[in-house]
Amino acid sequence: MVEEETMAVSSEGLPTQTFRRINFPRRPRWLWRYGPLVLWAILIFIGSTDLLSASHTAGPLRRVLFWVFPHISEQTLNTLQFLLRKAGHVTEYAVLALLAARAFATSSRELLRSRWFWLSLLVVIAYSLGDEFHQSFVPSRTGSIYDSLIDSLGGLTMLAVLALSKRWQVGNSLSTRP
Description:
elongated; 6 helices; mainly alpha; two-stranded antiparallel ribbon; 2 strands
């Protein structure tokens, strides 16, 4: 908090009153820009521990699937469970890509703004590889390059949607001008 004295001046140039203005420090914009990205990366890291391994999530997921589909076969149940887990990979890295794109596209640095797509994709691929490497050290998990490819595909899909949306908005705004 910074205090400064300010003096009001009349139209003749004479001081009329003095008052104190308190300037509160502005929140750093980089924190609002990159904070959600870092927080989501931390959540992915926590999810890569034993906490969300298949051995811990299989029971609750099976109960939900049995409740929704009471007459489901064991083979179909295993297939649905596999597909839901892979959909989780796609979704978590699509969100990571969205947050990375948001951070880079709104950056105060022109280089980051102009290359938001490629930088975001690089973050997604590097983090997915690191995540699978981390999982290879967790006894109840296995690191898989295929999971990393699925993660990267989720991120790439989100980035493609964002890029196409941005291109469509720019094209649409140009065509509506008189």
